[in-house]
């Protein structure tokens, strides 16, 4: 099976398209899941963004590991 250069470039183009499409779907589904968890109150992501400003050894933990 000997493929010419044009066929290989076409296969490569389709491959890149589907990889980018897959990454796009994964990224947006992850972003939507974060949005949904924030809206329902399952997890508060705003306290994690404050961690950048409040990062010291004396800071209290954001959440407990034990339930």
- Total number of β-strand segments? 0
Q: Average the pLDDT over all residues and give the rounded result.
A: 87
Report helical residue fraction.
55-70%
Q: Helical region count?
A: 2
Computed over alpha carbons, the radius of gyration is 22 Å
Which structural category fits the helices and strands?
Answer: mainly alpha
- Termini Cα gap: 60 Å
Beta-strand proportion: under 5%
**Main beta sheet strand tally, sense and closure:** none
Series of secondary-structure elements, N-terminal to C-terminal = HH
As residue ranges, the low-confidence spans are none
Dominant shape = elongated
Provide a brief overview of the structure.
This protein has 67 residues and is mainly α. Helix content is 60%, strand content 0%.
Fold and architecture overview:
The protein has 67 residues and is mostly helical. It is 60% helix and 0% strand. The protein is built from 2 helices and no strands. The longest helix is centred in the middle third of the chain and has 36 residues. The radius of gyration is 22 Å and the shape is elongated.
């Amino acid at each position: 099976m000997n493929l010419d250069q044009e066929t290989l470039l076409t296969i490569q183009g389709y491959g890149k398209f589907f990889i980018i499409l897959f990454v796009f779907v994964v990224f947006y589904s992850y972003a939507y899941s974060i949005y949904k968890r924030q809206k329902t109150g399952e997890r508060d992501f705003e306290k994690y963004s404050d961690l950048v400003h409040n990062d010291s050894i004396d800071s209290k933990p954001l959440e407990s590991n034990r339930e």
